[in-house]
Amino acid sequence: MTTYAFSPPVQPSVPVEGSEAVFPVRRILCVGRNYAAHRAEMGGDERDPPFFFAKPADAIAPLMNEVPYPPRTADLHHEIELVVALKSGGADIAVDDALDHVFGYAVGVDLTRRDLQGAAKAKGQPWEAGKAFDFSAPISAIRPAADATLDGAIWLSVNGVQRQTGLVTDMIWNIPEIIAEASKLWTLAAGDLIFTGTPEGVSAVVLGDAIAGEVDGVGALAFTLV
């Protein structure tokens, strides 16, 4: 029997819709600039291949009505995203086999300390302070793949005013392609979450703002920054 020096941390997890089971989170991968209009507003090239960054598993903030506004930022941004939850994985997964590894889908928000991210990018430094902070990944319950549809709208509002809107089908790299590309860089496994990118309209939010988002056929989430 393993003897730990202290009690292991609690396993981060996300509720599964319609079940008492929870989805144990292994890691969080995020795709950058995967909608053409958002890529344009951020200064990217449509022909760029997908790129990835990561958040720690404990950045997840499942079904939270209140999310803490993070410290050391004056420019916090919202990014609504479709999230893919994997039940299995591997390396060098073929595009045609990728959906066989999907457990389900959720709605997530990639919260970003844009000022810290921008400062790091300008110096050629890593993005963790801008992207991988505590509670930076609010998420809905996971809907099993068999119960989800993926051809609808994705949107986010702040205080009842719509800020982001698009279609899941607007993604430059689709879900099977994202899984296949990620598996060239990491050996994927059950428990991995992949945030698949955000449509145009990302902008700043402040303390007290009420944020709501939805992906048709997948789910919705809502929280207030406190």
TrEMBL record:
<dbReference type="InterPro" id="IPR036663">
    <property type="entry name" value="Fumarylacetoacetase_C_sf"/>
</dbReference>
<keyword id="KW-0378">Hydrolase</keyword>
<feature type="domain" description="Fumarylacetoacetase-like C-terminal">
    <location>
        <begin position="28"/>
        <end position="225"/>
    </location>
</feature>
<dbReference type="InterPro" id="IPR011234">
    <property type="entry name" value="Fumarylacetoacetase-like_C"/>
</dbReference>
<dbReference type="GO" id="GO:0046872">
    <property type="term" value="F:metal ion binding"/>
</dbReference>
<keyword id="KW-0479">Metal-binding</keyword>
<dbReference type="GO" id="GO:0018773">
    <property type="term" value="F:acetylpyruvate hydrolase activity"/>
</dbReference>
<dbReference type="Pfam" id="PF01557">
    <property type="entry name" value="FAA_hydrolase"/>
</dbReference>
<protein>
    <submittedName>
        <fullName>Fumarylacetoacetate hydrolase</fullName>
    </submittedName>
</protein>
